[in-house]
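New to this. Comment on this protein:
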Amino acid sequence: MKDIQLVISRSDVHDYVGGLWKTDIFRQSHQSGAFVHGIVDQFAKLPRLFCETTNDNLERAHFSTWWGAMMLRHDYDNPVIADLYLLHEMQHAGTMPYRAGLSHKAFCEKMEFNELGASVLSEIQVYFEMPGLRESSFAHPIYADRYLADPAMQALWRENREVAIETIKLMRRNIMIGNEHDLDIAELWIRKFNQQNAAYALVWHSRYDEIERHMVDFQNAAYLVGRREAIELHRDWLDAEADKDPIDHIPFREEAEISTKFYWKNKREYQAAMKVEADRLRQHMVTDPVLQQEIVRRILAKNIGDQPDCAIHSLGTIRLPGDRDASLHVRHAVDAVIVDDFGYVVLITREDNPGAGLKALPGIFIRSTGGPDGVEQDLAAIYRAAATETGIDKRVLENAQVIPLGPRVYDRSFDIRTAWADIPGTGIGAGDLFAVSTKGFCLRVKENLTQVPLKAGAGAKKVSVATIEGLTPDQFGIPDHLPMIRASKKAIADNLG
């Protein structure tokens, strides 16, 4: 534990947390007084202590939120997941009750219910509260997907939000402690993580009441004496515990050493399982040339036009090999050609098919909206694609010259996919087929791209800057991306001329 920051007043807590958000969607929800603001405001009812780890291997396994230390993490590749982690920990801290003299059984139940509330909020509820977030979070299926794709749950959420939340808690609790049944991969890991939390309670069997008593005193001091005095006494308590560890200055080092063994074992197994699942899902591409041609023919016959009036168009059903009928859709996307005047272009390395492991342009699916048009406009989507997949500062993007690269393209037989699961908010179900139309836009930035900070986002294995002249077709996993880059060069030359 090092670099301790004491954050005293409620407004200071809001300001401090506001500076931690990695994504605009969380930042805006906080600033606008929406869903995230409510979570932060509850968290801010006590003064808070933030700190860095001195030994991440040990302290990552600590449940430091319980004993009043918010350990900051900086190693998430996906900024949305980083913000989800912060939200989860603030919900833990903001709703944690403390009581001296609890039986160990009551303590265990308290911790289980606190974990249930934080997990439902940050792993399920957040996707209902913040539409569009799911597509930017995890590449593998998550437990929330079944509810996001369930019309009955969507209706319950609209009409009776509180009962919807309690229903989801009930279902998740049933997986945590219910009778054994055939668990899918998401349910299996909910069960395993609950077992991990039970192990934490055993680790703290001889000291949990000591922690509870101190946290009750801290809470009372904050409300009855003063927030500054309370958090300073709390810091001194934690420092005194950390001083017992001459190696890393970690509070409760013995408990950390015990916890770390099962924490990292579970984490490695979970990451391996999710990688296997994500790799399996990436293979779901339509490769039969006869089927590809028929799907493209249907799309072109639909005559959708350059600016779709909805994010996804249904094309009825289609007969697949093996005499199975599947629903067919076309889903609309945009691709961003981010270039400068120095001969550079920003490219991602794709995580998913088509073109997994190869270079591609940043791209994103357009969204349905509640506005009068019913669908996100291409220009808004292109800014979102560029920011989400490359991490480029939005001010750089907003100052760029934007040039459309011709009409929307529908004849793309190489990008027809089988949905591996229900896709929330789209009407596309598991086993359905969907083709992808796209429209390219050139974003000509003023800066030299080699000097612009980049960070890969959802769907991007990595992001980099390449010299346009050195690019060849075999480097690209999506065949029409290099032609878009070349079209950008011509469009800029024409525009200058």
